[in-house]
Write a structure and sequence with these properties.
- The structure is a homohexamer of 179-residue chains.
- Chain A has 179 residues and is α+β, with helices and mostly antiparallel strands.
- Chain A has one domain: Aminopeptidase.
- The first copy, chain A, contains 6 helices and 8 strands; from the N terminus they run E-E-H-H-H-E-E-E-H-E-H-E-E-H.
- Chain A has an 8-stranded mixed sheet with strand order 1-2-3-4-5-6-8-7, sandwiched between helices.
- At the A-E interface, strand 7 and strand 8 of A face strand 7 and strand 8 of E.
Amino acid sequence: MPGPVFLDGDRLTLRPIEEADLEFLQTQINDSRIWGPLGRSKPLNREQEREFFENRICGDDSVDLLIVADSTPVGTIGLFEFDWESQKAELGYWVAPEHHDQGYGTEATERVVRYAFDQLGLHRIAARVFEFNEPSKQLLETIGFSREGVHRDAEFVDGEYRDVYWYGLLEEEWRARSE
Amino acid sequence: MPGPVFLDGDRLTLRPIEEADLEFLQTQINDSRIWGPLGRSKPLNREQEREFFENRICGDDSVDLLIVADSTPVGTIGLFEFDWESQKAELGYWVAPEHHDQGYGTEATERVVRYAFDQLGLHRIAARVFEFNEPSKQLLETIGFSREGVHRDAEFVDGEYRDVYWYGLLEEEWRARSE
Amino acid sequence: MPGPVFLDGDRLTLRPIEEADLEFLQTQINDSRIWGPLGRSKPLNREQEREFFENRICGDDSVDLLIVADSTPVGTIGLFEFDWESQKAELGYWVAPEHHDQGYGTEATERVVRYAFDQLGLHRIAARVFEFNEPSKQLLETIGFSREGVHRDAEFVDGEYRDVYWYGLLEEEWRARSE
Amino acid sequence: MPGPVFLDGDRLTLRPIEEADLEFLQTQINDSRIWGPLGRSKPLNREQEREFFENRICGDDSVDLLIVADSTPVGTIGLFEFDWESQKAELGYWVAPEHHDQGYGTEATERVVRYAFDQLGLHRIAARVFEFNEPSKQLLETIGFSREGVHRDAEFVDGEYRDVYWYGLLEEEWRARSE
Amino acid sequence: MPGPVFLDGDRLTLRPIEEADLEFLQTQINDSRIWGPLGRSKPLNREQEREFFENRICGDDSVDLLIVADSTPVGTIGLFEFDWESQKAELGYWVAPEHHDQGYGTEATERVVRYAFDQLGLHRIAARVFEFNEPSKQLLETIGFSREGVHRDAEFVDGEYRDVYWYGLLEEEWRARSE
Amino acid sequence: MPGPVFLDGDRLTLRPIEEADLEFLQTQINDSRIWGPLGRSKPLNREQEREFFENRICGDDSVDLLIVADSTPVGTIGLFEFDWESQKAELGYWVAPEHHDQGYGTEATERVVRYAFDQLGLHRIAARVFEFNEPSKQLLETIGFSREGVHRDAEFVDGEYRDVYWYGLLEEEWRARSE
C-alpha cells in the first residue's frame, strides 16, 4: 500500500519509510550485493532491523526516504551526519539489484540534492563510494559531485583493504549547473 | 517461511535467526544429542530460549546464522567471543541429528570461514571440540584447522571429565589452501 | 501440545516446564493431597503461580522438569538448592494423585538422579520426606538413598508437628549400584 | 563504643550489630580459622562485607547479635531460616580465635536459646556443625541439643568432603532441662 | 599531582585524563585559539565539561591521554572513531597556546602513532586539519601522513567556509619509515 | 594500611582488595611492563579503575586477592572464569616490576593453587601466558602446570601477532606432587 508522497520525481516518488517496509528493507540489507558496497558486514534479523528503524528512521537526526517506482519500493535514500553550524550533510542510497540500470538512483539523488539545497538550505553535500563501485561514481559525477579525496585502505571488503572515494557538491556549483 | 538470505552456499543458505525459529531452536537445544557435545547441561523452556534470543542473537557481540537446506532449518552456526584488537573470534555450530551425515556442517563452516576472513577481516578463528566428537574433529581438519591444544578434563559429560581439543585457523593458511 | 524432550525414560519423558503447563501446575499445587506432603500450606492463584513460574522455573538456580506419560503431564521433578562448591543439590518431586501407583515417581527420580551425577557432575543429592509419606520413603530407598537423619517436629501438618526424614545419596554409592 | 544492650548475660552482653562493627566482622570473616568451620570459602572486601551487613543484618529475616565481653566484641550469634508456620529457626555463631576457651560461645548460645523459646515462641531450633568441630559439638550437647542426623559429604573443606552433623532442640526438652 | 604514566616519551609523558584535570581542560577548550582550529564553537561550563569527561573520557570507545611535560599538562591527544572491522581510527590533539613551538605535538603524535600500530594493531590512522592550520599540516607530514583529500567548505570559521584537509597514514608506510 | 588477611604464606599475605588499593592498582595497570604481558592495551583513569573494582572485585564471579610482602602491596592474584559444573577456573596474576625476581609470584600462586583445590574443591586450573613471558612460563611449570596448547597468533603485542600458551593443572597431579 503506497504511503504519503513526500517528494515527487518524473518516474519516482520518495516517501517516508514505514514499519510495513521493514520486510523489504531487511531482505535487501541482508543481500551481499547491497551490504558489501555499503561497507556493512553483519546479518540483521527482524528485531535488529526494527531497532535500526526506531533509532535511525524514526529519529530526528536524519532524513530517510523510500524510493518507489510504480508503487514498488526499489531502494532508499537519505541525508545524515548533519552539521547544521556548517550547513552540511552526507548523502547515501541503495537500489535493489533487480532494479538496477533503470536510472532510479540518479533520479532519486537529483531530487534529494535539490531538496537539500532548496528546502534544507545546505551549503555542502558529501558522499562516500568504494573505489570499485563504478555505477555510483558515475552517478555522482553525472549530478556534479567532484572527487575530493581518496581515503586509502579505509574498509576491508572481499578479502582486501579498499579505498574509499569522497565526493562533495557545493550549493553554488549545483545552482550554476541547474541553469 | 523463508527469511532473507545473508550468505549463499551450494546447497545451503545461511540467514539471520528470527523469532519464528525459536520453536526449532528450543526443540534442538533440549535434545541430549545436541546439548551434550555443546557442553550444555540444563533444560531451556520457551521463556529462557527467548531470553537467549534477545540477549545473544539480537545483540551486537556475535554473528549468528540459521543453516537452511531446501527451505528447511537444519542447524545454526555463529562467530562469537570477538576480540577485535587481535582480530580473532571463536566459531561454533550444531546440526540437528536427523540432518547429520549430509555434509551440511562442513559446507556451512566453509562459507562462514570465508565470510570471517573476507568480510570481517579476521586474522584467526578458533573452535573447541570434545575429544569424543569425531565428526566435528574431521570437519575442522578438513577445512584446514590445526589442533593447537588439548585442555585436559575441561568438561564433565556423561559421568566423566572429558578433554576439549582447541583448533585454530589463520588467515594466511586458509588463503593458501583456497588457491 | 508436547514440548521438546529433555530427558528420555522408558515410559516417561521429562521436558522443560512451559507457560502452557501453568493450568495443570496450579490445579495440582492447590490440591491438599499434594501441598500437604510438600510442606506447603497456602493457596496460589494464577498470578501467584505465574510469578513462581517466572522466578523459579525460568530462573537459573534450579532444574525443573515436567513428567509426561503418553503425552499427559503427570507431575514435576527438580533439583534445587545447588551448592556448586560442594557439588550438591536437593531433589524434589510430586505426582498428581490420579497417576499414583504407576511407578512414575520412581522412574522420573532414577532418570534425574542419573542426569545429576552424569551430566551435572554432582557428588551428593539430598531429599526430604515426611515421616508419614511411606511411598516417598520407599521410592528413595529403592533408588539407593540412605536415611541420614530425623529432624524432629520440623513441620506442622494436620494439627501436629511432624518429623522430617532427610535422605542422602552419594555419587560413588550410586555408581556401585548401577553396575 | 558500646551500643545498646539487647540481651544480658552473666559475663556477656548481646547487642545489635552496627556499621562501626564492620571492621571487626570483616577481619574475622577473612580469618581461615573462622571461615573454614562456617563452610565459607571466599574473601570479602569492605564493600562486600557492607553489602552483607545491609542485606542480612539490616534485613528483617534474621536476628543477629554481637557478643560482647567487657566492652570487647568477641563474636556474633544469630537465628535465621525462620519458618514461622512451623515455628522453627536455625542457630549459628562464631567466636574470634583469641577469645576461645572462655565459654563465651556456650553462654551466648544459652542466652539466645532462652530468648528464642521465651520471646520468639519457637518450638524448635536446629544447628549445623562440621564433624571435626569438637568444641561446637560439645557446646550444643551441653545445652541439650540432640544429634538428629549426619549429612554425609555435605561440604568440601581442606581437600576432603566432610560430614555435617545436624542438631535439634525442642521447646519442651529445653524447658524440662531448665527446671 | 602526577597520575600514572601510560606511555613514555623523551620529554613527555602521556597519562590517563583524570577528574583533577577538568579545570585545565575546561580552561583550554574555551580558549578560541583552541576551539577554532578544532572546529568547535560553543562555550562549555564545568558541568558540560564533566559530562564530556564521563561520556567520552571514561567511556570505552576512545583512547584519550593528557600530554605532560615536566609534570605540567600541556595538551591532550586521542584516538577515536574506531572502526575495528577495518582496523582504523582517527587521531586528534591540541596543545595549549602557551606551550606551542616546543615540538610537544609532534612528540606526542609520534608516540601515539607507534602505540596505535604496535599495541592496537591498527592498519590506518586518519586526521583532519583546517587549511589554515600550517603547524598541524607540517606536524602530520613530518610524521609521514599523506594528504588524501580536500573537503571544500566543510566548516564555517571566522566568517567564512573553510576547507578541511584529510590525512592518512598506513601501517606499512609507517614501519618502512621507522626502519 | 593493612587489611584483614585471607590466606597466609611464608613471606606473603594475601588479602581482599579494598578501595584504598585503587591508587596502587591504577598506577600498575597503566604501566606498559604490566599491561603488555596481560594482553591489555588501553589507559585506565581513576573512574574506569573504580568501575572495574565495583564490577569485578566486589562481584561474586571471581576471587581476587592483593599480594602483600612486609605490609607492602606487590601485586594481585585471582581466580576467574569459574565453571562450577566442571569445577574449573582460570588463574591470573601480576607483580609490580620493582618487586620482580623475589619469588613473590611463585609463592602467591602456590598458595592460591592450594586454596583452589582444598577449599574451592576445583578439579582443574588453567592459565594463559604469552610465548615471550619466560618468567611466567617457568613459574607455572615449577608449580606443576603442563603446557596444553599453543594458540597461534592469539594476541597483537608490540607490532606482531603473538602465540599464547595455555597451561593446565589437575587436582590429582597437584596432590601427587605435594606428597
